[in-house]
Amino acid sequence: MIPELAPWQQRAYDQAVATLAEGRLGHALLLCGPERLGKRAVAEALARYVLCQSRGADGRACGTCRSCRLFDARSQRDPVEVRPDGSPAHPWGHSAHPDYILVGYEWRLKPSPPKPRTEIVIDQVRELSERLALSAEHGVRIAIVEPADAVNYNAWNAILKTLEEPQPGRYLWLVASSPSRLPATIRSRCQRLEMRLPPRDEALAWLHAQGHDVDTAQAALDAARGHPGLADAWLRDGGLALRKEVAADLARVARGESGPIETAQRWAADEDAALRLYHAADLALAEASGLTDPARIRKLAQWFDAANRTRDLLRTTVRADLAIAELLVAWRAVPARQAPGQERGGNR
Ligand SMILES: [Zn+2]
Hints:
Blueprint: H1 7-21, E1 28-32, H2 39-51, H3 66-74, E2 100-103, E3 107-108, E4 115-116, H4 122-133, E5 141-145, H5 156-164, E6 170-176, H6 184-187, E7 191-194, H7 200-209, H8 214-223, H9 228-237, H10 239-255, H11 260-267, H12 273-289, H13 294-313, H14 320-332
Parallel strand pairs: 1-6, 1-7, 2-5, 5-6
Antiparallel strand pairs: 3-4
Helix pairs in contact: 1-2, 4-5, 7-8, 8-9, 10-12, 10-14, 11-14, 12-13, 13-14
Bound molecules: zinc ion.
Zinc ion binds next to α3.
Organism: Luteimonas wenzhouensis
Enzyme class: transferase
InterPro entries: DNA_Rep/Repair_Clamp_Loader (IPR050238), P-loop_NTPase (IPR027417)
């Protein structure tokens, strides 16, 4: 079964279903909004509904017709499946539904060990276009590209061609958290379905329903600046504790209580180094967002960029502790907050 939708996901879904009911759902849809809000869940639920052969008046798929059963069987597949002949499979598994096409990161099999690609390449898009054009059992075929912001520059022409020659009953849905990265010629041809951060009360109620107690949920939601999906992820994978640790480290480095080199060695010592840099960059961004002093905002923005660059460096052969130490030396040079008694880099 596909998961129950969160209230903010349900709103986006309902909007699309209403558009379909009015006969206004076009060939191309751009589903956008912040990462981890569940855009993919909305796209899947919508695909299941559009493909359903016995759609209810309540805007839900029946769940029992042949199409729904085929669709649901898909979710049981191993997400990191590779085809028996060794050719790459979709990391989320293949759809058992012949009229449902999902295109995302594939696996690069050579050199060994296999790794997922970091972009969606032209061969994938060509295959998508071919499959989308095939005849469909009930006249409907749906292709989803996610993340569409990872489509390779050369592959966009192939997508554009598909968008320019729409066929009846064929849908192409692009899912993106940074839609501005998509070419304007693509964006202008898509209907837009936008997902936004929910109101705080709704986010808290949802986090509570995920099993987090009220205080923890509030702290995580504050740290994630109102993003429930992020807060939930941080609570599940220890990200919130790590974030607090990073905030405390940054404060100590800024006050001169810890050395950049010693701190960098600790940050680089385990597999969480990239995650620490992610939180460090985000904490700088959070600090900057509440400020009015342009000089400090600029310094924090520069440091935010530097932290992200350092995170990219971790994937190269550069020595992680040295790269991080340089970043932390730069952190000391960011002018300190003026208000007395407030910690640098703390959670707000
Ligand atoms: Zn059905």
